[in-house]
């Protein structure tokens, strides 16, 4: 008895000491908590994931931007651009002042029709004429006007959600326009 008591002082509790905690006494069922027994096999069934549609390689993703242009899905695009669901086009505007009914007509002609048009107006959020926004809404296209940095992030987010979205982006920073107002 002296050795067991000494062992308890040194090691806390010896593994060979016959000590039964109150929770595991024969009168009470043990409290399992979060542990499951092998008899609970319905909780151990495997889960299977099937990928029905692999990631589409032709989804546009804006990887970066600068004062010169954009990096979109690995391609460098210089100047303002229209990013469509499966292609990139040069957009012939020099600043937010050049955005007009004519420059937005490209987005109204797309098939399938886009749900949301994200416009990036450069360093700051610039207001567009309400008649242009109304015309786009009448065509069933929601327009989101943001600064270019946030427009790029919004476009990527919506594309990741598999929405039918397009973007009209003007690079932030120094305005590089010719006297005619078009991007050089």
TrEMBL record:
InterPro entries tied to this protein: MTH938-like_sf (IPR036748), NDUF3 (IPR034095), NDUFAF3/AAMDC (IPR007523)
Biological process annotations from GO: mitochondrial respiratory chain complex I assembly
Residues in coiled coil: none
Gene Ontology cellular component list: mitochondrial inner membrane; nucleus
Major site of localization recorded for this protein: mitochondrion
Alphabetic keyword roster: Membrane, Mitochondrion, Mitochondrion inner membrane, Nucleus
CDD domains according to UniProt: Mth938_2P1-like (cd05125)
Subcellular location: Mitochondrion inner membrane; Nucleus
Family affiliation: Belongs to the NDUFAF3 family.
Role, per record: Essential factor for the assembly of mitochondrial NADH:ubiquinone oxidoreductase complex (complex I).
Protein name: NADH dehydrogenase [ubiquinone] 1 alpha subcomplex assembly factor 3
Organism of origin: Taeniopygia guttata
Name of the encoding gene: NDUFAF3
